[in-house]
Amino acid sequence: MKALVFQGPGKTSWQTVPEPGVKDAADAVVRVDTTTICGTDLHIIKGDVPEVAPGTVLGHEAVGEIVETGSEVRTVRPGDRVLVSCISACGRCRFCRENRYGQCRGGGGWVLGHLIDGTQAEFVRVPFADFSVHPLPNSVDSAAAVLLADILPTGYEVGVLNGRVGPGDTVVVVGAGPIGLAAIAAAQLYTPGKIIAVDLAEPRLAAARAIGADATVGADERPEELIKDLTEGLGADVVIEAVGVPEAFELCTRVVRPGGRVANVGVHGKPAALHLEELWIKDVTITTGLVDTYSTPLLLRMMAAGRLPSAQLVTHRFEIPQMEEAYDVFSRAAETGALKVVLGGPPHDVVALPA
């Protein structure tokens, strides 16, 4: 089969690799019909995630069909259409029993495209299938469903819930890429007073406004001043970091109000300064986290009911063999206007946000 293989920092190749099979009794093998590229994949290619070994198939998001299952799999069977979650869960360890699947110590957590071969391929082996795939209703479009593998639960859990967004809050989202837009969409479920998006790229700020941001500002246009003006000088109640670079995190800590919350979502490959000499007195809460995906069934029901923007976040569609072209478009998002790039799946009209 063909797959996108990490060859070391700055190097990938679309090449032939052996098809996966069932290794453990809890495994399922999924034929990948639809997959996508995540900002985390770009961090891996840059060398920001050194745990990823050369030779690993990248990708941790997919929709596909079960083609084989191990003897212990009970909830799905060959022929089922499923969502492959970015997080695998053993279901037995302490953290899985607490719904903290991202911290699984039984062989799960974020393993696909990280510690084992991932989903940017024609087939993928999914460990702990009973806890790691979700059957999909036919009413949910594949391009929309694949967003539930990572960005929508990440924006919801690590951004909105960790940040404890509440009614009337001023929420600042730093970074209006796919994760930031997912956080903006999810924040609206909690009726904040206003949402302010910060980004360097005007097309992404336009997308943020289309998704529901009340105000936008360029990261190079003194966002601190606008946020101060819109909050009577206090700062934001909740600030969500959705970039993964030191400058973005440090901006978040400058614009949060006393007693406010900073929810870091971005994947950081370099140290960021934590100015405790300024923050110690402000009673600020800072959270970090890897998505657990415990909210995926809830979000799937909301998507099926039309309560979440989904395929609207998809700006580009490719066939799976066009993986390298898709990576090129996604990696140049400031030029191409790419938000979420989806590969494969049956043909559908894509409702693109303003570019």
From TrEMBL:
Q: Which stretches are transmembrane? A: none
Q: Which cofactor does it need?
A: Zn(2+)
Q: Which GO terms describe its molecular function?
A: oxidoreductase activity; zinc ion binding
Q: Which residues form the Enoyl reductase (ER) domain?
A: 8-343
Question: Which keywords appear in this protein's UniProt record, sorted alphabetically?
Answer: Metal-binding, Oxidoreductase, Zinc
Zinc listed as a keyword:
yes
**What InterPro entries does the entry give?**
ADH-like_C (IPR013149), ADH-like_N (IPR013154), ADH_Zn_CS (IPR002328), ER (IPR020843), GroES-like_sf (IPR011032), NAD(P)-bd_dom_sf (IPR036291)
The Swiss-Prot or TrEMBL record describes its family as follows: Belongs to the zinc-containing alcohol dehydrogenase family.
> PANTHER family per the record?
NADP-DEPENDENT ISOPROPANOL DEHYDROGENASE, ZINC-TYPE ALCOHOL DEHYDROGENASE-LIKE
According to UniProt, the name of this protein is Alcohol dehydrogenase catalytic domain-containing protein
